[in-house]
Amino acid sequence: MPAPPSRSYLAPEEKQYSAVKFDEWKAPTDPAFYTELGEFDDPDELPSTSIGRGESLVVYDADGKTVASWDGPDHPTATDVPAFE
User: Fold this and answer.
1) Which of 29, 31, 40, 79 is found 20 to 30 A from 10 (Cα to Cα)?
2) CB neighbourhood size of 24 (10 A)
């Protein structure tokens, strides 16, 4: 079974930030546990997405540190992600 991704693995390679969506319903060793949404330099470029129940969105900087995160709602409907500033 593969190991879950490390923060340094999820850090952006070419830009200032990376956005990663996690599915808490999956095991951390499942390849579907996380989805890399993309890299960006400007907070206004955060990829457009929604997060649902059991999901979270995390933004990492070039050092692999979390700079923003959002958790999905406690109810089963999807929610839009607020602006990243």
Assistant:
1) 79
2) 13
Query: Whole-angstrom Cα distance, residue 12 to residue 28?
Result: 20
Q: Can you give the pTM of this predicted structure?
A: 0.81
Q: Which residue has the tokens 């839009």?
A: 80
Token readout for 41 is 């330099």
Contact in structure between 66 and 58 (CB atoms under 8 Å): yes
Q: Are 63 and 11 in contact (CB under 8 A)?
A: yes
pLDDT digits (tens, 9 = 90+) for 27-85: 988 889 999 999 999 988 888 888 888 899 999 999 999 999 998 887 665 556 666 66
